[in-house]
Every structure is written in structure tokens, then in C-alpha cells.
Design a protein that fits this description.
two-stranded antiparallel sheet, four-stranded parallel β-sheet, alpha/beta, 6 strands, single chain, Ribosomal Protein L13p, Chain: A
């Protein structure tokens, strides 16, 4: 006689085998006055698929995310003047620094993408997930035909 439940009553954990088994939803979030870090964590969670019961670590189970009003994203404290985005040209003396405030004015899409990318896995899977993020300066975007669902941020 075996211990535990009979085999027909045992629950099995379902795991996605490939990305084709997951129904993706388009989600939309308005970045107006939302702090950058809080917005980025919500977006990264949805891109990875951790909000779903069928989350599988080695398969991309996340949804698409559309971010609007990127120019109005919130930077708390003195981050607009005292925090810098770094990039390196590859040449000696080629370290370029730009404050988050000026980056928000010049390229707000890049500011949000940098914050989200750093919260995703550093692997092929993470590079695949970041492609599902669409960031726009204003309220208009070309994905209205996908019927995006609002994302709580």
C-alpha cells in the first residue's frame, strides 16, 4: 500500500514547454508622474510573465507592454540632476555621462528601457523579453488594433 494520495488525485504543476503555448496579452501603462523604479519593476514582472500562474523560468511567458507619456515619468529626489546614465564609446577618454533629467528630455524612451532592461535576466531570454516593450513619448501609439488592457502601476 502506497503512502499519500492515489495517483489520480495528485496535482501536477504545469510548465510551458515553448513560447507558443502562451497566449500573450497587450498591456498599456501611462507613465505620468509614476516613479521610474516602481514603473520599471511592474513592467519587468509582466515582461517575464511572473504575474501568470503558468510562469516558467526558462520560457518567455510574458506579455507585451506599451508605455505612453514617457516624458512625464517621475524622478524622485535629486535624481534628475545627480544621477547619470553612462555609456562608453570604446575609445580612451570616451566615457559619456548624461544626467537623468536631460536624458528624460532628450530620449525618454531610452530612460525607461534602461531601467527595465537592468531588471530582466542577463541572457538570451532577457534580450528576447525586452523586445516586447514598446515605449512612446506621447499618448499616441500604433498598437491600438491589439486592444491593450490597462496595467496597474
Amino acid at each position: 500500500m502506497s503512502k499519500g494520495h492515489p495517483s489520480h488525485l495528485r496535482r501536477q504543476t504545469w510548465m510551458a514547454k515553448n513560447p507558443g503555448e502562451v497566449d500573450r496579452v497587450w498591456r498599456e501603462v501611462d507613465a505620468t508622474d509614476v516613479p521610474l523604479g516602481r514603473l520599471a519593476t511592474e513592467i519587468a514582472t509582466v515582461l517575464m510573465g511572473k504575474h501568470r500562474p503558468e510562469y516558467t523560468p526558462h520560457v518567455d511567458t510574458g506579455d507585451f507592454v506599451i508605455v505612453t507619456n514617457a516624458t512625464k515619468v517621475g524622478l524622485t529626489g535629486k535624481k534628475a540632476t545627480d544621477k547619470f546614465a553612462k555609456r562608453f564609446t570604446g575609445y580612451p577618454g570616451g566615457l559619456k555621462l548624461e544626467s537623468y533629467g536631460s536624458l528624460r528630455e532628450r530620449k525618454p524612451e531610452q530612460l525607461i528601457q534602461l531601467a527595465v532592461r537592468r531588471m530582466l535576466p542577463k541572457s538570451r531570454l532577457g534580450r528576447q523579453m525586452i523586445k516586447k516593450l514598446k515605449v512612446y513619448e506621447g499618448t499616441d501609439h500604433p498598437h491600438a488594433s491589439n486592444n491593450p488592457v490597462p496595467l496597474k502601476a
